[in-house]
Specification:
heterotrimer; B: 295 residues; mainly alpha; MetI-like fold; 13 helices; C: 475 residues; alpha+beta; D-Maltodextrin-Binding Protein, domain 2; 2 domains; seven-stranded mixed sheet; 48% helix
C-alpha cells in the first residue's frame, strides 16, 4: 500500500564483498527494533477498532466486527466531526493553494525591491511558534467576530437566522474564522514551495507562448499550471496534512458541538472519563488517521526538498 | 513607451497577486506577533474588570515573569524536551535508520514506510495512542512489556512524565530526521568512500572521518529545523498530559495557554509569548546568517 | 530536482483526485446545510416556541436536567436546547469564559463555585439579576449567607440564582475511634482538635487528620483546606470594607501555623499531597482503610467517595462515618462551611434576556433544586425546601440542610484565582518544610500583590497592626 519511492540513489555501491555478515545482521536488528518501536502503539488502535469489547488496553479481540464503523455512521456527532474536518480543512487547503499559487508566481517572477525582504520575512514567519500567537490571534479574532456579528444582526432580526449565519461566518466558533486561520497558518510554507517550483519553470516558456499569440489566461492555463502541478501537489499535500492534524486552532476557536472537528470532538469525548466508548473512538481514530497517512505517503518525496529548498548547502 | 506601461502593469499585477496571501498572513501571523508585544504591557484578562477595560502596566508582567518559578520551570522543561527528543532521540534513531537503510538490506520500502508512519499521525491521535501505551495497571501495554524484564507496573505519565513525552516525540520525529539525513548521506560522493576503502580504512574510520564531517551541514540543518518545530509543539503534550502532573511537562507553549486560558491572564500570557517569539526569532536569524540562505 | 517529470505526473493523479473528492464532499456538506436549516424553520413554525440554549456538564447533572426538561419547557412555554459541556471543571470553565468573551455563550449556564461570581460579573459576562431576585418569592427563602454569596462584592448586585449548596465539615471514622476508645465528642476549638489528633496518632499509629494543601491540589488547597482554618476566626474576613484581600493578618499566619503543626508532628499524611491527584490516596484509599481518621469533606463524600459503588466502599457508611463541625480558633462556636455551587447565571449578551431570566428563576425552584441535590449529594439552597414533599428523598442530606442557617463562608472578590494559586504555593512550602506560618503568610501576600497589583490587597497599616495585636501572638 505504502509504496514509497525513495528519492535517493541506491547508495550502496560499496563493494559487496566487504559488507560482512555481522554488519548486515546488525543492520536488520536495528531496523527491526526501530520498526517495532514505531509500530507498537498502532496495534492497540487497529485491534480495538474491530474489537466488539474494545477497552483502553491492548488485548486479543473477542471477535472481529465492523460495528464500530457502522455506529460511527449512525452516530450523528461522529459523522459531523468527519464532515466538519473535511469541509474546513479541504476549503482551507484549496484557498491556500489558490493564494499560494498567485503569491508564489509573483514572488518567483518579480524583481522588485520587495522580493528579498519578503522572502526573508517568510522564512521568519515560518519559524514563529503558533502557541506564541494564541493570545494576540484570539484578540484579533474577537475583534473580527464582533464586527461580523454586528453585521449579521443588522441584516436580520430573526434569532435563529442570526445563529445560523454566525455559525457560518463568525471568526470565533464559526466556519469562516477557522478556515481563514488554518489557511493563513499554512500559507508561508505553501508560498515557499510554489515559489521554488515556479523558479524551475523557465520564463522563456511563457514568453514563447505569448509570442505564439496565446492570451495571458491561455498561458497560465496551458503552460504554467501543468508545469507547476507537482508544486501544487506538494503545497496542497503539506497544507492538508498540517491543517488536518492541527489541534491548537480548533481548540482555540471552536466550541459549539455543531462545529466540532475530529481532533476536538475526539479530545472532548475522551474527557468524559466516566463514559469513554473506546470502540467508537478507536474507529474514529482510524478514520482520522487514514487521510493523513495517505497524504503523507504522497508528500514524503517532497519533504527534503521543501526543507532544504532555500538552503545553499 | 508601450514597453514601459506593459512593465508597470506587470509589476502591478505581481503586487496584486501577492496581496491576498500577504493580507492573510499579516492579519493572522505578522500583526499578532507584534501585537503580542503591546499586549504584554497590559493587564488584559478574560476575567475581572480588566476584561472590560485593560490598562497599561508597563513592564510589570515581565517583572513578575522573571520572578515566577513556574516560568523558569517551563523554560527548563522546554529545553530538556527539545534536547531529549529532537537533538538526541530523533536524531540518533533517525541517523541509525538512515545509515542502516544505506546498506543493501531487503524490504527497504517496508522499513521506510513503517518508520514514516508515526510522522503521519495527527497530534490528537498520537496522544490517544500513547495514553493507551502508558496506561497504568498491569494491563497497560508498556507495563506488560517491562514485566518481561521483571519491572513492576508503573504509572508512566505520573512517575516519568517528562521522559514519557520525550519518548512520544522521539517516536513521532524519527521519520523526519531519517528522511533529511538520508538525503544528506546520498549527497556524499561515492568515490570518496571508494578511495578510502582502497586505502584500507575500516568502517569505523570511514564513519567518523568521512560520513560525519561530510554530513555536518545536513546535521546542522536538521538540528535547526527540529529545534524550531519541537519548540512550537503544543497539541502532542496537551493531549497527553496538559503540562501536568504538577507542571512537570509544562513546555512553553502549554505554559502560555495555561496562563492565558486557564488562569485567564492574557497580558501575562502575552509576556510569555514575547519570550517565546524572541527566542525563536533569534534562532531564525542565526539560521539565516549561518547557512547563508539564498532566496 | 528530485522528481522527474513523468514520475511526478503519474503520482499526481491521486493527490489531485483526493483534493477533488475533498472539495466535492465539502461542497455536498455546505449544500446539506440549507435543507436542515429550512427544516428547522419549519419546525419553529409548528411549535412557535422560542428556543433557549442552556449549558450543562457532568453526567449526573445532565441526567437531572434531561429529566426536568419537559416540565421546564411546559412551565415557561419555551424549547430548551441542552448543550453538553466538558466535565472536568477547568475545561468547563475555560470553554464557558472564552464563549462569554466571544459573545456566543449559551443563554443560561451554571457558575460552578460562588468565588467565580465576582470575576465573571466584573468582566460584564453576567446579566444583573437584582430586580428579578427581588420580585422572586424564592429569594426570601434563602439563608442570609447564601444571599450574600450570590452578590458581587464590588456592587452588591445579584448575579446568580442559587439552587444547591455544598455543606462541608470534618468527617471522621466513628466506628474506628469508638473501637479504639477515643472520644467522638465534638472538638470545640483548635486545641481540642489537635489533642484528639495526637491521641489518635499515639493509640492507633495512623494519620489522624487531613486538611488539603499544596500545589497539586490546586484551588482545593483553599476551598477544602485553608478556608476552614480562616473561617475559624470570628474577627477575620478575607475582604475588607474597600473590597481588598486581607492577607496580612494573624488569622492567616496562625492558619498556616496550624498546617505547620500538623506537618511537624506528622499528624497529617504529607507525601501523598505532593503527588499528582493528591486526593486519591488519602481520601479514596487511606480513609476507607482506616489509615486516616479525620478529613475535611462535603455532604457528597459519604455517597460518592465512600458509599456503595465507590472505589473503596466503607461498610455501613452512614454509621461508620460521622461528622464534626469545624472547631473554632478563638472561642466561637464550631461551624459548618457552605459554598454556593452551580448557581445559575444569565449571559449578559443573551438574545433572549427576559426568557432567560425567567428560566433561571424556575431553576431556583425547590423541585429543581431537590432533583439536582439528590443527584449530586448536595443540599437545596432554600430553607423552605424542607417543606417540599420530595425533601424526605434526600435521606441523610436532610441533616446537612439543617446546618445551612448557621454555616459560615468567606466572601471573595475579583482575582480569586490568583488568591487560590497563592494559597496553593504557600501551603506547598509549609508541606515541604520550607516555610513556617509567618513565612507562608508573607509568600501568599507577595504572590497576590505580584499578580493582582497592590491596589487589590490591603496594605498592612496601623489599624491592621492594632487588630492583629489583640489576637494571641506566637512567634
Amino acid at each position: 500500500m505504502l509504496t514509497i519511492v525513495r528519492p535517493t540513489s541506491e547508495g550502496m555501491s560499496m563493494s559487496e564483498n566487504s559488507a560482512s555478515f555481522v554488519a548486515q545482521r546488525r543492520a536488520y536488528l536495528t531496523l527491526i527494533l526501530i520498526s517495532l518501536f514505531c509500530l507498537m502503539p498502532f496495534f492497540w488502535v487497529v485491534l480495538a477498532a474491530f474489537d466488539p469489547k474494545a477497552s483502553q488496553f491492548l488485548q486479543i479481540p473477542a471477535g472481529i466486527t465492523v460495528d464500530h464503523f457502522w455506529n460511527l455512521l449512525a452516530n450523528e456527532s461522529g459523522v459531523r466531526w468527519v464532515l466538519n474536518s473535511v469541509g474546513i480543512v479541504g476549503t482551507a487547503t484549496l484557498l491556500c493553494l489558490v493564494l499560494a499559487g498567485f503569491g508564489g508566481y509573483a514572488l518567483s517572477r518579480t524583481q522588485a525591491w520587495w522580493k528579498r525582504p519578503l522572502l526573508y520575512a517568510i522564512i521568519l514567519v515560518r519559524i514563529v511558534p503558533p502557541p506564541a500567537l494564541i493570545v494576540p490571534v484570539y484578540k484579533v479574532m474577537l475583534f473580527l467576530n464582533e464586527w461580523v456579528n454586528g453585521l449579521i444582526n443588522s441584516l436580520t432580526s430573526d434569532v435563529e437566522q442570526q445563529m445560523m449565519l454566525s455559525r457560518m461566518f463568525s471568526f470565533v466558533d464559526g466556519y469562516l474564522g477557522l478556515i481563514l486561520i488554518q489557511c493563513a497558518m499554512q500559507l508561508p510554507l505553501a508560498i515557499w514551495i510554489m515559489k521554488t517550483f515556479f523558479d524551475a519553470i523557465p520564463k522563456d516558456y511563457e514568453e514563447a507562448a505569448a509570442l505564439d499569440g496565446a492570451s495571458q489566461w491561455q498561458t497560465v492555463r496551458h503552460v504554467l499550471i501543468p508545469l507547476a502541478l507537482p508544486g501544487f501537489a506538494a503545497a496542497g499535500l503539506f497544507a492538508f496534512i498540517n491543517a488536518w492534524g492541527d489541534f491548537l486552532m480548533p481548540l482555540m476557536f471552536t466550541s459549539s458541538p455543531e462545529l466540532q472537528t475530529l481532533p476536538l470532538g475526539m479530545f472532548r469525548a475522551f474527557l468524559r472519563v466516566d463514559a469513554i466508548d473506546y470502540g467508537f473512538l478507536t474507529a474514529l481514530a482510524v478514520i482520522y488517521t487514514l487521510p493523513a497517512v495517505i497524504a503523507f505517503a504522497f508528500a514524503r518525496k517532497f519533504l527534503t526538498q521543501t526543507f532544504s529548498g532555500g538552503v545553499k548547502g | 513607451m508601450i514597453k514601459l506601461t506593459f512593465e508597470a502593469r506587470r509589476q502591478l499585477g505581481y503586487r496584486l497577486m501577492m496581496a491576498p496571501a500577504l493580507l492573510l498572513m499579516a492579519a493572522f501571523i505578522v500583526f499578532p506577533a507584534f501585537y503580542a508585544f503591546s499586549l504584554s504591557l497590559t493587564d488584559d484578562a478574560l476575567l475581572g474588570f480588566a476584561a472590560q477595560e485593560s490598562s497599561f502596566v508597563g513592564l510589570r508582567n515581565f517583572e513578575r515573569l522573571f520572578g515566577d518559578p513556574l516560568f523558569w520551570n517551563s523554560l527548563k522543561v522546554t529545553l530538556i524536551f527539545v534536547i531529549g527528543s529532537a537533538v538526541i532521540g530523533q536524531f540518533l534513531l533517525g541517523f541509525a535508520s538512515a545509515l542502516m537503510l544505506q546498506r543493501p538490506v531487503k524490504y527497504k520500502g517496508i522499513f521506510n514506510a513503517i518508520i514514516c508512519l508515526p510522522n503521519a499521525v495527527p497530534e490528537m491521535v498520537v496522544g490517544f495512542l500513547w495514553i493507551s501505551m502508558f496506561a497504568s495497571g498491569e494491563y497497560g501495554t508498556l507495563n506488560r512489556l517491562v514485566a518481561w524484564f521483571g519491572v513492576e507496573p508503573q504509572q508512566w505519565l505520573y512517575t516519568f512524565p517528562l521522559l514519557s513525552i520525550i519518548i512520544v516525540n522521539t517516536w513521532r520525529g524519527i521519520a523526519f530526521s531519517m528522511i533529511l539525513l538520508t538525503s544528506g548521506l546520498a549527497s556524499i560522493p561515492k568515490d570518496i568512500y571508494e578511495a578510502a576503502r582502497v586505502d584500507g580504512a575500516t568502517d569505523n574510520q570511514i564513519f567518523w572521518r568521512i560520513t560525519v564531517p561530510m554530513m555536518m551541514p545536513t546535521i546542522f540543518l536538521y538540528m535547526f529545523i527540529s529545534t524550531v518545530t519541537t519548540f512550537a509543539i503544543f497539541g502532542l503534550v496537551y493531549t497527553l498530559s496538559r503540562g501536568g502532573p504538577a507542571n512537570s511537562t509544562e513546555i512553553l507553549g502549554i505554559y502560555i495557554y495555561n496562563q492565558s486560558f486557564t488562569a485567564f491572564q492574557l497580558g501575562y500570557g502575552a509576556s510569555v509569548a514575547v519570550v517565546s517569539l524572541v527566542v525563536s526569532m533569534l534562532l531564525g536569524m542565526v539560521y539565516v546568517k549561518a547557512l547563508k540562505v539564498e532566496v | 530536482m528530485i522528481w522527474t517529470k513523468q514520475r511526478g505526473r503519474a503520482n499526481l493523479l491521486l493527490p489531485v483526485a483526493v483534493t477533488l473528492a475533498v472539495g466535492l464532499i465539502a461542497a455536498m456538506y455546505w449544500g446539506r446545510g440549507e435543507p436542515t436549516a429550512a427544516q428547522r424553520l419549519a419546525a419553529t413554525e409548528a411549535e412557535k416556541r422560542p428556543l433557549l440554549v442552556i449549558a450543562e456538564h457532568r453526567t449526573a447533572r445532565l441526567q437531572a436536567l434531561y429529566q426536568l426538561q419537559p416540565q421546564l419547557e411546559a412551565r415557561l412555554g419555551i424549547r430548551l436546547k441542552i448543550v453538553e459541556y466538558p466535565a472536568p471543571p477547568q475545561d468547563y470553565f475555560t470553554k464557558l469564559v472564552t464563549e462569554l468573551r466571544a459573545g456566543n455563550a449559551p443563554d443560561v449556564f451554571t457558575v460552578p463555585r460562588d468565588l467565580q461570581v465576582d470575576d465573571l460579573a466584573a468582566a460584564g459576562y453576567l446579566a444583573d439579576l437584582t430586580a428579578d431576585a427581588e420580585q422572586w418569592s424564592g429569594y426570601a427563602q434563602l439563608p442570609e449567607l447564601v444571599k450574600t454569596l450570590t452578590r458581587a462584592s464590588f456592587n452588591e448586585h445579584v448575579y446568580v440564582i442559587p439552587s444547591i449548596v455544598a455543606v462541608e465539615q470534618l468527617y471522621y471514622r466513628h466506628d474506628l475511634l469508638t473501637a479504639a476508645g477515643i472520644s467522638t465528642a465534638q472538638p470545640q476549638n483548635w486545641q481540642e482538635l489537635l489533642e484528639r489528633s495526637r491521641e489518635i496518632k499515639q493509640k492507633m499509629q495512623q494519620y489522624p487528620l487531613l486538611i488539603p494543601a499544596g500545589l497539586t491540589w490546586g484551588m482545593g488547597s483553599y476551598t477544602e483546606g485553608l478556608r476552614y482554618l480562616l473561617a475559624s476566626f470570628q474577627h477575620y474576613q478575607l475582604l475588607n470594607s474597600q473590597n481588598q484581600y486581607v492577607l496580612d493578618d494573624n488569622a492567616v499566619r496562625q492558619s498556616f501555623g496550624f498546617y505547620q503543626t500538623l506537618v511537624a508532628e506528622q499528624l497529617m499524611p504529607v507525601q501523598p499531597l505532593l503527588n499528582p491527584e493528591p486526593w486519591v490516596i488519602p481520601k479514596y484509599e487511606m480513609f476507607p482503610k482506616g489509615q486516616l481518621l479525620i478529613t475535611t469533606c462535603g455532604s457528597w463524600c459519604p455517597v460518592f467517595d465512600w458509599g456503595p459503588g465507590s472505589r473503596n466502599p466503607i461498610a455501613d457508611v452512614a454509621n461508620a462515618v460521622r461528622t464534626w463541625k469545624f472547631p473554632s480558633a478563638d472561642g466561637g462556636q464550631p461551624f459548618a462551611l457552605a459554598s454556593v455551587v452551580y448557581a445559575w447565571g444569565v449571559n449578559a449578551k443573551s438574545r433572549q434576556q427576559p426568557l432567560a431570566r425567567r428560566l433561571v428563576l424556575a431553576l431556583g425552584e425547590n423541585d429543581v433544586a431537590l432533583a439536582y441535590a439528590k443527584q449530586l449529594g448536595n443540599v437545596p439552597a432554600r430553607l423552605d425546601a424542607s417543606q417540599h414533599p420530595d425533601f424526605a428523598a434526600l435521606g441523610n442530606l436532610m441533616a446537612d440542610h439543617a446546618l445551612l442557617k448557621d454555616a459560615r463562608a468567606l466572601r471573595t472578590t475579583v482575582g480569586s484565582n490568583a488568591m487560590m494559586a497563592g494559597v496553593a504555593q504557600a501551603s506547598e512550602a509549609v508541606l515541604t518544610g520550607r516555610a513556617d506560618g509567618e513565612r507562608a503568610q508573607q509568600m501568599l501576600y507577595d504572590y497576590v500583590v505580584n499578580v493582582l497589583g497592590a491596589a487589590q490587597v490591603e496594605t498592612p497599616d496601623l489599624a491592621a497592626a492594632e487588630r492583629n495585636g489583640k489576637g494571641e501572638s506566637d512567634d
